[in-house]
């Protein structure tokens, strides 16, 4: 759905949901309600930003140097990694983190809830390009609820006649005061694959996660809530989830961020990715007809 006036007529909600085109040609849905603001790009079904009114600063980080172009993933927000996480297991020519984040999605419904939150349903558009990369019959949808909290459900239905194995993540970039001033609780004692610098060593988390260098970890068998404690912004962000057995913690640090070209000079200091995923040993197998739902809820609150 790229026709703006048709999209606004069908799914716009006066004063609350509006579609617009941004420089670079992407169509973005802007959501604004009594609880706060969010923006969702139709490319990738990508929640680009979320700023609840209770917070001085946004909770979901979007790089000031993000590039907006057809077929290119946006640096920040909530990229949807699907149907594989990281490099493709067999074909390095295929895009990292799957194709869902760079293909068109379409809105299938919008509504305002009684509590003033806005609910948006999106579906991955069937394209020949996606089919060529992953030739299976499947239904993929997102349900985004923008309220006092941000909830996102990523739903996969196997409509084929054989088992499907998927990797996935809601690859969320959270806005923080400074990378040196946060700690992440909820992963204590968990085993992780340490991918920083291209490795894959297995380690165990000792205490809360504190970052002091490039960090790229897949925490395995982790279903509990994570909490990002931010001493600089004097707040904590709660990351609750279900249907997700891996948690990825990522920050590229300075040298890698410089090479990536869309972080800006110090962007990497203001973000941390805490991704609710099913990756590595936690892939999901769907039998024909089965449905899998990965759900997250983000909430921010002042530190006591
Ligand atoms: O630059 P991309 O493709 O969005 O990926 C960013 C990072 O995403 C993380 O999830 C991966 O663990 C990292 O290895 C990767 O570098």
Outline the structure in words.
It is a single chain. This protein has 304 residues and is mainly beta. The protein has one domain (4-299): Distorted Sandwich (Beta-galactosidase, Chain A, domain 5). 7% of the residues lie in helices and 42% in strands. The protein contains three helices and 22 strands. It has helices at residues 4-11, 128-133, 253-260, and strands spanning 17-21, 27-33, 36-41, 46-52, 80-81, 105-112, 118-124, 138-146, 150-158, 164-166, 168-170, 173-175, 182-185, 191-194, 201-204, 215-219, 226-230, 235-242, 246-251, 271-278, 284-286, 291-302. The strands form four sheets. Strands 5, 11, 12, 14, 15, 16, 19 and 20 form an eight-stranded antiparallel beta sheet that branches. Strands 6-7-8-9-22-18-17-13 form an eight-stranded antiparallel beta sheet, with no helix packed on it. The longest helix is centred in the N-terminal third of the chain and has 8 residues, at 4-11. It is globular, with a radius of gyration of 18 Å. It starts with a helix and ends with a strand. The model has no long low-confidence stretch (mean pLDDT 96). Bound molecules: 6-O-phosphono-beta-D-glucopyranose (BG6). Residues 73, 86, 96-97, 171, 195, 216, 248, 250, 275 line the site of 6-O-phosphono-beta-D-glucopyranose (BG6). InterPro entries: Aldose_1/G6P_1-epimerase (IPR008183), G6P_1-epimerase (IPR025532), Gal_mutarotase_sf_dom (IPR011013), GH-type_carb-bd (IPR014718). This is Putative glucose-6-phosphate 1-epimerase. It holds the Pfam family Aldose_epim. Keywords: Isomerase.
